[in-house]
Amino acid sequence: MARPLKKVLKVLGLVIAVVAVTLLGVRLYTMQQGPALELWHTYLPDELHARKLDKMSWREFVQHEDRLFEAVRQHVNARIESDDRVEGNRYFDGAKVNPGHFAHDWNRSYVLTPEGEPVGAAVLLHGLTDSPYVLRHIARHYQSVGYVVVAIRLPGHGTVPASLTDVGWHDWLAATRLAVREARRRVPAPRPLHMVGFSNGGALALMHSMQALDDPGLARPDRLVLISPMVGVTRFAAFAGLAGLPAVFPAFAKAAWLRVVPEYNPFKYNSFPIRAARESHELTMALQKELQQRQRDGTLDQLPPIISFHSVLDFTVSTRALINELYARLPENGSELVLFDWNRATRLGPLFRRGVEWAVAGALPDQPRNYRLTIITNSSPSSRNMIERIIEPGTLEVADRPLDMSYPPDVYSLSHVALPYPPDDALYGQHPDNIEEFGISLGAMSMHGEVGAFVVDMDTLARLTSNPFYSYLLQRIDGVIPR
To answer: Rounded to an integer, what distance in angstroms lies between the CA atom of residue 282 and that of residue 153?
Structure first.
């Protein structure tokens, strides 16, 4: 009996090995056929890591950041080949998309101060491959109502994509602590402290808030505002490290990258290293473990109220994880989840993948919740007019309230990246207020024409990059800001 089982296991192991080698070969072949690595994929700036960040002042951090950007200018911008000196390369000093031409380089950390005595402070945390640009509109709103805003550039971001191959989530979390220290230095307690996190930044805000429950040296926020928060990611990220193993050999350096594409966006990387995916996945796993443990020991009731905004169709982060791993565990503490439904008035039903219809209903429990649930959805399947569908904590009763908003006829859903940008954003807006400000307008392009003309895939260009319901989102954030 033992011998046949041993034989079966041996055959099974051989099959697994053959499949693994085959997949690895396909991976290597695919990567080698792609674009060559450029200077911005290979030059490593001297980024700060957790140990130094925890001992550093904001002033020292900004001084180091200045040196970092100057080093990138010398080692990348000044050395690029003639073939890369093109209008669509952010690292070419002569290109309109080069951040050096702008009145303000939003890749860098910044502090906004209000007129007069501040009434509170807000720490803003951007997402993976992003920069502090992503939350600039929300930052200005907090400033306008009397708050000091501290928006930090997380390690590895804003410079060159290669920098993300040398940092991890513990470094991002240490930078979060630094930003919170600076916010509290400028605006001491008991004046309110808010943390606003987009995507990966939402995970960092949550993790910091939970760690602050046990550490009196960490300032606790009074409110969390999360936008497309990364509580869970796709399963592929868990195996991203394996996909990058061949990169230990110089001939296969490109295997360390999930995507190598031109860098035309002045405030976001287009290329994406495997390590960034792995670190983001590990952060969400640590976050979920922390949430589970604190639910068991009963300390989640010490968390501040959380309001989250999320598109039910989100290719980057998991809607189910947001609901089941975070909101289902929260006590009744005034938290709210706001979901933006897909446009049910479209005539694209036959083209949707299986499961889209399930996107809201299948992810929500059929029993009373401890949080307020708000769904922004069509008033009827045939109308683009929107309503606010509200279910209060402790009940299943639904209250509908008409909104003076409608889905644009050419938009079938929001996207992960769209939520923090108003339609008039100069870079991402569908109707930019200054189309020349950043040398390119990624949200206003009409993507109708022949295929094969662009250096990036059509999915990237067709993704919605601004929020037609941004005014509603800002109104709801405004409603949780103490004056």
So the answer is: 20
CB atoms within 10 A of CB 76: 20
| CA 395 to mean position of chain CA atoms | 32
pLDDT tens per residue, range 75-133: 999 999 999 999 999 999 999 999 999 999 999 999 999 999 999 999 999 999 999 99
- Residue 140 has a CB neighbour count (10 Å cut-off) of 11
- Counted residue by residue, the chain has a size of 483
Query: What gap in Å lies between CA 370 and CA 359, rounded to an integer?
Result: 21
**Residues pairing with 340 in the sheet:** 311, 376
Tell me, what's the pLDDT at 346? 83
CB atoms within 10 A of CB 388: 17
Q: How many CB atoms lie within 10 A of CB 315?
A: 11
DSSP secondary structure of 404-436: EEE--TT-S---TTTTT--TT-TTT-SS-S-TT
This model's pTM is above 0.85: yes
Pairing of strands 223-227, 193-198: parallel
In terms of pLDDT, which residue wins out, 344 or 42? Answer: 42
The values of phi and psi at residue 22, to 5°, are -65, -45
C-alpha 391/C-alpha 451 separation (Å) is: 45
Dihedral (Cα; 430, 431, 432, 436), 10-degree rounding? 90
For residue 282, the surrounding DSSP H or E stretch is helix 274-297
